[in-house]
Amino acid sequence: MKDIYIHIGSYKTGTTTIQSFCSENRKLLAKKGCYYPNAPGNNRISEAHHGLALSLFKNYGGLPAGWYRDENSFDDYIYKYLSEISSIKENKILFSSEEFCQLINLNDPYIAMQRLKNEFIDFNINIIFYVRDPLSLVKSVYNQFMREVSRKVPLKSFIDWFYYLDKKIMLPYEAISIWEDVFGEENIKIKIYSKSTDHLNEFFNILNIPSFICNNEGMNKNIKSDDRELERGRVKEVFSVVPSYDINSYLSPQVLLDFNKWANLQVMLDNINESYGDFLSKYASHLKYQPITVFDLISHNEKITSFDVSSYLANEAFISEIRGIAYEIEGASTDYSRKIFSAIEKKGL
Description:
CATH topology of the largest domain: Rossmann fold
Largest sheet: 5 strands, parallel
Strand order of the largest sheet: 2-3-1-4-5
Structural class: alpha/beta
Number of strands: 5
Order of helices and strands: EHHEHHEHEHHHEHHHHHHH
């Protein structure tokens, strides 16, 4: 019986790196005994198997994101993939899509997961699931949201955005128990994601493909942007579309000015810390977890909103730009404006 590995993410755990490598190195994988099925669709899903995941999600009442335009049904995908892998010689088949994490949002995710299992009943099914620590994850998600160009209104400041964020995004591992119930605990492969690890080689070790030398450098095709560069773009967006009387609510954290919201924020963090702590105790007890605090959120907010001009001394256009921003927002957000002027003055500019 052949093995099927279904890599389900989660989000922001190097999935694009894995999918890009597999898509571009199908022949190399085949030589190692692993088959990576073709992934039809538009450019957004051509390297991964999002169509399989989202058609299943849609089939059981889910509403996929706006970018998903594929009209193929789950039955269509199953027919295609079962036909494709029926005659291959490789003993391992790998599917990869973080969109499988969407199944937990269904009214009854068990039915959808059981359907997935039943369709591949003639194979040994293994589920690969990566988890990222909550603080690192939320920083990465915020950056991703800032890069999105399709939203109608700008993002709020980091802390305010975090306050209203659906915390399911930060706690994907809470769905592990459901995957275990359906596929069996022994068939769930859980790894802790870290940018410092040799991500590709670690991944292929899960598939029992040792000595698979991969160079991670340059593999991640997600756009890389400095936190502050993204924040400057957010500020510009705020001034282009937000009425002047409302600008301050986008530039300065409003949650910290409301005692009740501050208290709620602490409760949210306590719940996240407890949940992730329990997860590590069960699946990675060797790791130590530093709980997230309100101070961590404030520190990151200060980091991305601080205008460190030291690396731009030779860029007069940039200095002029941020000085202009400071004058423009002086009336609407005094604290933010003072922060910019202070940074400029410290550098003698």
